[in-house]
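--- STAGE predict ---
source: upstream dedup step, 1 unique chain passed
mode: sequence only
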Amino acid sequence: MRALLSKEPGGPETLSIGELPDPVAGKGQVVVAVRACAVNYPDVLIIEDRYQFRPPRPFAPGGEVAGVIESVGEGVAGWAVGDRVIAVTGHGGMVEKLALPAAALHRLPPNRSFEDGAALLLTYATAIHALVDRGRIAAGQTLLVLGAAGGVGLATIELGKAFGARVVAAVSSQEKADAARRAGADDVVVYPYAPLDKDASKALANAFKGAVGPAGADIVFDPVGGDYAEPALRSVGWEGRYLVVGFPAGIPKLPLNLTLLKSCDVCGVFWGAFAMRDPAANAAHVATLFRLWDEGAIAPKVTGVFPLERGGEAIAALAARRVVGKLVVVP
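--- STAGE serialize ---
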């Protein structure tokens, strides 16, 4: 079968189309014919050997897929050939076929496209875990979302509104500001590109404070890091929660005296580990996501679809932080 392969560490330009053996469904597994694979920031890191784990090469990037079950292995109950499914794979999704544990599958409703299905889980499941379990979100609170026009940022805006919060979106351009407002953001801060000197950092902190209001933000959702982290932390209110989600702008060093002065929490968000450690709680969150999707409160924002041979271009666009919403690769 065809696959987009990483054969050596490097950027998206090192990826190439190659062949892998057709997968066979083992015990407890199904083989899924992949119809769509979403692109996420871990795809940038994993091909450069900068992610939490390093798969043996050659491997295909791609951490979440949608497709149709092609065969069912021994001991699998509740799934049949022809079922439409979505799943988080970690890696390996930019292929024509993929063997997956049946326990990893979620059913894709017949009225949803494969492209939208592939773009749902990683961003929205991360966001709902962050807001509910780590952020303790409640109606009437104020939520500041950094990187708000990316896939996880837009998901967080939508979920924040669904949970009754006032949402302030922080983005790097007017185009992204418009996308954040369309997703439901109540206010938007357009921040400058890093690096930020001391004056620029102070000005951004004041902009965040002005947008969230005098009581400060109850929750800051930060999938960006870098020079934007400290100004965002300075906008947190008393006993607020600063959620550490990712670092495409670099790993920041936070002045911990601010946490004492605000009596606030700095909370790590690692959805993948949470889902493995507490699958029942994760399944409940996913059920909530499907309900909100049915109600129209959330909807994946797929803004580009690439054929498999151009999957590297999609990863490169994400690495350059040019993407609004989600990109999807189709075999």
